From TrEMBL:
It comes from Tamaricihabitans halophyticus. SUPFAM superfamilies: beta-lactamase/transpeptidase-like. This is CubicO group peptidase (Beta-lactamase class C family). Coiled coil: none annotated. It comes from the Bacteria.
Length: 410
């Protein structure tokens, strides 16, 4: 169990301690109003932890407080880790970013694309080009999520058992086979939509490496980076530190416990979801963000070349478009205006359009239970936020945290 604490005076690293107190005030008010169970935020600058604060409870019913070693479901903050795994294999020559994924996942050959009709009677046409590796990394493959509830293809995913989870008994290979049977939302490369693409990418990692995804993560990423408490299942003494999962009560939006969804992380998973399956701690994920900030290296261990990280954190949407221009108006873990998308991360391309104090080039993502992180290379800054409120669209926590963090920079 890693010890995580403040290691430097914020004032010595360009952060106003008094202004940082606004973070505490804002999120403790959410707790006082019953809208959040508990929260934890951490800010590092120049490699030093300058701010660490928490409030509320990790388990309201048991009266257990949030602590620095609390274990959190990170849901889609799994995606950047899967993307790093894929890019490690790319560096090793396992595949090119432009390669069709059907070379390793033949079930995705001869894909069809929805053109009109309904979920029960879809009309489709052949995909004009194959799904390529970079399409998976950038969410431009034409895949979708069942929870979008916006299109007949989403409904087809739900009918196949895919909404907030995967069908019982189906492993990652079986899930990919099922997704490949469904039509794509659009032609590969034509648009951006948040999707199961990173889960499919996880399967590509398995096939290309010859290792199950959990083993690849454990041996190739977590052990080298010292991430000792990140994994697909929470067991043993860590169960005592696991935060409960909450959802908003309809009408009041008061946080209420949901053990049906929450208990999944305590069970052996049927499907190793590269897009959503991990739990972690602030100490572990802080190490991951420091590895990214340092362009692929941490404490003498290099997993990616600097140029690879630069490529991943560049906007890959055509003509430097943002998500508002190139994406469908569906849910994602970040705003659309002013944000592009790289290979596993959102990328801030226009702070003015985004109406944010953050820096151009900041890269980030979040998770369904309202967790979030971002890395700002310009300010040599990383920020982490943890809570357990599903879905993350319930409150504008991330936008508010950005405002509070950047107004504290001196």
């Amino acid at each position: 169990m890693a010890n995580f604490e403040v290691t430097a005076d914020p004032g010595e690293h360009g952060l106003d301690a008094r202004r940082l107190g606004r973070i505490d005030q804002r999120f403790n008010q959410y707790v006082a109003d019953g809208l959040l169970p508990g929260w934890l935020a951490a800010i590092s600058r120049h490699g030093k932890v300058c701010y660490l604060a928490s409030g509320g409870q990790r388990d309201m019913e048991a009266g257990l407080p949030v602590e620095s070693d609390t274990v959190w479901r990170i849901f889609s903050m799994t995606k950047p880790i899967t993307s790093v795994a894929a890019m490690m294999l790319f560096e090793e020559g396992a595949f090119d970013l432009t390669d069709p994924i059907e070379r390793w996942l033949p079930e995705f050959a001869d894909m069809r694309v929805f053109t009109k009709g309904s979920a029960l009677r879809p009309v489709t046409e052949p995909a004009r080009e194959p799904i390529r590796v970079w399409h998976l990394l950038s969410h431009t493959a034409g895949l979708t999520y069942g929870f979008h509830h916006a299109h007949p293809v989403d409904a087809m995913h739900r009918a196949a058992g895919f909404e907030w989870s995967t069908p019982p008994g189906k492993d990652l290979a079986a899930c990919c086979a099922a997704w490949a049977e469904l039509p794509l939302l659009f032609q590969p490369g034509a648009e951006w939509t948040y999707s199961v693409a990173t889960d499919v990418l996880g399967r590509l990692v398995e096939v290309a490496s010859g290792m199950p995804l959990d083993r690849f993560f454990a041996e190739r990423i977590f052990a080298p980076l010292g991430m000792t408490e990140t994994g697909f299942q929470v067991t043993g003494e860590a169960l005592d530190r696991l935060a409960a999962l909450y959802v908003p009560r309809p009408g009041s939006r008061k946080a209420v416990r949901n053990d049906k969804l929450g208990e999944a992380i305590t069970l052996t998973p049927d499907c190793l979801q590269g897009g959503a399956g991990l739990a972690s701690t602030v100490a572990d994920y802080h190490r991951f963000t420091q590895f990214l900030l340092r362009r692929g290296e941490l404490d003498g261990v290099r997993l990616l070349a600097p140029r690879t990280v630069e490529l991943m954190t560049s906007n890959h949407l055509p003509n430097d478009a943002d998500l508002e221009q190139f994406g469908r108006p569906l849910f994602a873990e970040m705003p659309f205006d002013g944000f592009g998308f790289g290979l596993g991360f959102s990328v801030l391309r226009d702070p003015v359009k985004a109406k944010t104090l953050a820096s151009k080039g900041e890269f980030a993502w979040g998770g369904a239970a309202s967790t979030a992180f971002w890395v700002d290379p310009t300010e040599d800054l990383t920020v982490l936020f943890f809570t357990q409120l599903l879905p993350s669209s319930t409150h504008p926590l991330r936008q508010q945290l950005r405002q509070d963090v950047y107004q504290a920079l001196c």
